[in-house]
């Protein structure tokens, strides 16, 4: 946007010393041309960066939506899935400091373009195992697959089974074992996510600082706000894409779908998880193309040539620091920049407000990242929902609530003229009430489904003994059953049985999803039930569960909004305590700390904790433990929500410490926080207009992994 001559006159009249520069003598026409050139170039960069933010947010959220699909497809526990999810952060760890520190001195647009290509290569690599490993095999009794062979589920002895059928089945198992023994295809998913992390690294620090350096000062806030708004749309489309792909069978296009005997409600169902990664990879490639044609530097706007720093930063940084920043951004050799690295790091970590806010953010993101990573699994297991519906709900309800919360936080700051001290209070309050609302979710869970031998005995009483021993009872003692099988059937008494064999079924009719079992001795002896038939698939959750799921959604949306309101004020606190010449470096360190100390470990130890609540593990074709088939609903609820709340409570204590430091160091006259030139400065002023300008508010909406506040 062009600045009027009256505004220029007013600007210069407020300065006692006006720097003499050749640009002051330019003709009106040449100045106008330069402004138009600047605006055109920065808007092209703005559009390209917005598309990149959309692409990276889409692929990141799509990975979250496919966590359970990957777990089932590769038959791995939740803890290992957590390692795969954390590999993205490991990729960031490898180069983020180098990119954030040296990248600002190099060709930033081309570095971002190269990052997009690496990100797309990683996304394609994640999908590759689908094309190199065999077709997905799930546990099913032969009679549900092949109607030409009539077998009794309860095998009294192996002479009941036709010899050709047994030999054919054993040959398939041996062939599958030979193929599985030589490959662990989930490693390719891990490596692909690692590459995604490497490629995504330069986008945040370099893209935001490029806009801040070359946009007109009063427009920089609006531009950065536009980028963050577009970034919010990415997770919405990512989860909706995950919902669509979860409806499609994993081997769609490779097998006859009529032969598939499981439905999306079955815990063994795997959707077309790989399809979304191909789509996300193509989008990442397209997003990176414009950056190869953008210049290293853009003409600076007239309003930014006369000051080495923004007017807003000048309120908190001493004159000595202004001169330091001016000299810092001069052309320097690589060795000189490297020499200044350690002093800059020491300067940054000498700021107590920055350190305390960093600690609070690390612990809070531990709770939020762990919660969001396994939120789809929690909804599926706790409320009996399909993966498709779970992703649809998260994408269409939770993420818009997060976006509205971030916007509301900035709006509240601007509307009520809240300063830095008030921002600390608002951030603390939103966290406190958000976690308080989360506490109510303990009362909104579903009871365990009645599964004979796991959650209830075969006589209808609650389980008190080891489940492996309890799978066998008098009613199935005459059958040759395996405790490792998971082929659930639903008896007419409303009880789920691990397999037709363990239910004591003597006959079956039909094939595929329409198979019906008869003369099931365990079904007939359960309670007062007189019927002895059962159908394929587990029984549905209790009648109260749909109502509890509705309550959960309402509280979850309110919680998401409440926590997100505090994100903008908290980030204002961070940005106001950073020297201008350390801005890019400080954001890189902040992002690094969040990802190393929260993004990497949180999914792993959350996954380990969730694995402890498993009641029935699947078994791999060649032996060994596979993915979990059934969780203890009550234990899962206490572990998942409890771990989230404990971490959130600890982060609140650090937020209180931030507020205490701000109060202690504030001046009674102007509430200004400052330090000497070596330690950095952070200030709070009572005058509202000193803080709440648009540049401050919108710029602060950038904070890492904001899509995790679901």
TrEMBL record:
The places in or outside the cell where this protein is found are: Cell membrane
Please list every transmembrane segment annotated in the UniProt record, as residue ranges.
40-59, 80-104, 110-132, 220-250, 270-294, 354-372, 392-412, 424-444, 548-575, 587-610, 639-662
Recorded GO terms, molecular function?
A: bile acid transmembrane transporter activity; sodium-independent organic anion transmembrane transporter activity
Q: What is the reaction catalyzed?
A: L-thyroxine sulfate(out) = L-thyroxine sulfate(in); L-thyroxine(out) = L-thyroxine(in); 3,3',5'-triiodo-L-thyronine(out) = 3,3',5'-triiodo-L-thyronine(in)
Q: Tell me which residues make up the Major facilitator superfamily (MFS) profile domain.
A: 45-666
Specify whether Phosphoprotein is a keyword of the entry: no
Q: Where is the Kazal-like domain?
A: 469-524
Kindly name one Pfam family recorded for this protein.
Kazal_2
> Mainly resides where?
membrane
Matching InterPro entries: Kazal_dom, Kazal_dom_sf, MFS_dom, MFS_trans_sf, OATP
Q: Which family does it belong to?
A: Belongs to the organo anion transporter (TC 2.A.60) family.
List the protein's name.
Answer: Solute carrier organic anion transporter family member
Q: Which organism does this sequence originate in?
A: Hylia prasina
Give the lineage. Eukaryota, Metazoa, Chordata, Craniata, Vertebrata
């Amino acid at each position: 946007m062009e600045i009027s001559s009256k505004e220029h006159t007013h600007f210069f009249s407020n300065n006692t010393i006006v720097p003499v520069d050749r640009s002051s003598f330019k003709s009106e026409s040449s100045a106008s041309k330069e402004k138009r050139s600047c605006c055109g170039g920065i808007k092209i960069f703005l559009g390209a960066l917005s598309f990149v933010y959309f692409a990276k947010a889409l692929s990141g959220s799509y990975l979250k939506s496919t966590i359970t699909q990957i777990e089932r497809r590769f038959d791995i526990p939740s803890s290992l899935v957590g390692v795969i999810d954390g590999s993205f952060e490991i990729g960031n760890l490898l180069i983020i400091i180098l990119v954030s520190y040296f990248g600002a001195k190099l060709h930033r647009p081309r570095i971002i373009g190269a990052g997009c290509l690496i990100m797309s290569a990683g996304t394609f690599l994640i999908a590759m195992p689908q094309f190199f490993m065999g077709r997905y095999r799930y546990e099913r009794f032969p009679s549900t697959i092949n109607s030409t062979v009539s077998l009794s589920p309860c095998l009294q002895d192996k002479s009941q089974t036709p010899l050709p059928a047994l030999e054919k089945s054993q040959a398939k198992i041996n062939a599958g074992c030979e193929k599985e023994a030589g490959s662990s295809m989930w490693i390719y998913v891990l490596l692909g996510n690692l590459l995604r992390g490497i490629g995504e690294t330069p986008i945040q620090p370099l893209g935001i600082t490029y806009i801040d350096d070359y946009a007109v000062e009063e427009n920089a806030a609006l531009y950065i706000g536009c980028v963050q708004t577009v970034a919010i749309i990415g997770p919405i489309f990512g989860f909706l894409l995950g919902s669509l792909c979860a409806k499609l069978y994993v081997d769609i296009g490779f097998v006859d779908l009529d032969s598939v005997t499981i439905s999306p409600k079955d815990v063994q169902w795997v959707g077309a998880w790989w399809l979304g990664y191909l789509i996300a990879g193509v989008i990442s490639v397209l997003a990176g193309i414009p950056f190869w044609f953008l210049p290293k530097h853009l003409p600076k706007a007239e309003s930014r040539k006369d000051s080495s720093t923004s007017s807003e930063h000048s309120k908190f940084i001493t004159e000595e620091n202004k001169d330091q920043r001016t000299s810092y951004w001069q052309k320097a050799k690589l060795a000189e920049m490297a020499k200044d690295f350690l002093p800059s790091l020491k300067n940054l970590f000498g700021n107590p407000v920055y350190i305390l806010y960093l600690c609070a953010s690390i612990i809070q993101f531990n709770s939020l990242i762990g919660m969001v990573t396994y939120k789809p699994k929690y909804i599926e297991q706790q409320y009996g929902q399909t993966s498709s519906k779970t992703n649809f709900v998260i994408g269409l309800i939770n993420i818009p609530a997060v976006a509205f919360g971030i916007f509301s936080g900035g709006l509240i700051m601007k509307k009520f003229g809240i300063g830095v001290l008030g921002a600390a209070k608002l951030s603390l309050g939103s966290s406190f009430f958000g976690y308080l609302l989360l506490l109510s979710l303990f009362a909104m869970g579903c009871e365990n489904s009645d599964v004979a031998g796991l959650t209830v005995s075969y006589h209808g009483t609650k389980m008190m003994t080891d489940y492996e021993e309890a799978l066998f009872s008098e009613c199935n003692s005459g059958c040759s059953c395996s405790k490792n099988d998971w082929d659930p059937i639903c008896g007419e008494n409303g009880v789920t049985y691990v397999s037709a064999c363990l239910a004591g079924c003597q006959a079956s009719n039909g094939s595929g999803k329409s198979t019906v079992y008869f003369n099931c001795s365990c079904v007939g002896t359960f309670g007062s039930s007189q019927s002895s038939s059962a159908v394929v698939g587990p029984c549905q959750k209790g009648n109260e569960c749909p109502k509890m799921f509705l309550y959960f959604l309402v509280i979850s949306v309110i919680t998401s909004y409440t926590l997100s309101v505090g994100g903008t004020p908290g980030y204002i606190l961070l940005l106001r305590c950073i020297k201008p010449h350390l801005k890019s470096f400080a954001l890189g360190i902040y992002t690094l700390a969040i990802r190393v100390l929260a993004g990497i470990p949180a999914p792993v130890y959350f996954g380990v904790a969730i694995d402890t609540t498993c009641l029935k593990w699947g078994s791999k074709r060649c032996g060994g433990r596979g993915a979990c088939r059934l969780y203890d609903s009550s234990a899962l609820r206490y572990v998942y929500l409890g771990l989230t709340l404990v971490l959130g409570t600890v982060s609140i204590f650090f937020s209180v410490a931030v507020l205490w430091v701000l109060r202690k160091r504030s001046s009674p006259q102007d509430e200004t926080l400052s330090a000497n030139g070596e330690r950095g400065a952070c200030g709070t002023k009572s005058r509202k207009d000193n803080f709440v300008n648009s540049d401050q508010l919108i710029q602060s909406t950038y904070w890492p992994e904001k899509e995790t506040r679901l």
